[in-house]
Structures are given as C-alpha cells and as structure tokens.
Write a structure and sequence with these properties.
Number of strands: 5
Shape: globular
Number of helices: 1
Number of domains: 1
Strand content: 35-45%
Structural class: mainly beta
Strand order of the largest sheet: 1-2-5-4-3
Distance between the termini: 35 Å
Helix content: 10-25%
C-alpha cells in the first residue's frame, strides 16, 4: 500500500475516514503520510465498504495510541477556525 493514494473524508481525535480509488484490499494496519508535514502515523482499519461507492472504497481507521500526539497535532493544524 506504500504507493496507494487516498482522500481524507473526515478527521477527528479518534481517527479518520478515507476513500481509496484502489480496489485492492485494505490491510488491518497501515501507515498514512500526513499532508501537512509528511510525517507518518500508523492506523488500524476498523471498517471498509464491501463494494466501491462512486468508484471509491471507504475505510474507517483509528490511530495507534503510540502516535496519538502526532495525530492530535495534525487535527489541530487543519481544524476549521470557524468551528472553534
């Protein structure tokens, strides 16, 4: 999955939802590269859609506890100021 691209659909302190345009199976654990500073965090897949929706496979994932601080900093960096 190192070369697989995904769209971030939603983020929260608890994790994220992704849309993959690649139809290969999504592993139970994988790394994502954060677009803000190119750091990586390891996530655990929680769920996936069974079939493509609009050509994308959807996935829900949680960040491993060991990398929670990096993930929270990312969420804070991209949070919509209007939502505060």
């Amino acid at each position: 999955m190192a070369d697989t691209r995904a769209k971030i659909l939603d983020i929260s302190y608890g994790g994220l939802r992704l849309a993959f345009d690649d139809t290969r199976s999504i592993p139970e654990k994988f790394e994502i590269t954060l677009p803000t500073d190119q750091s990586t965090v390891t996530v655990n897949r929680v769920w996936t859609t069974d079939a493509p929706v609009d050509g994308f496979i959807r996935c829900g994932a949680v960040v491993t506890e060991a990398e929670a601080d990096v993930w929270r900093a990312f969420v804070n960096a991209v949070e919509d100021p209007a939502a505060r």
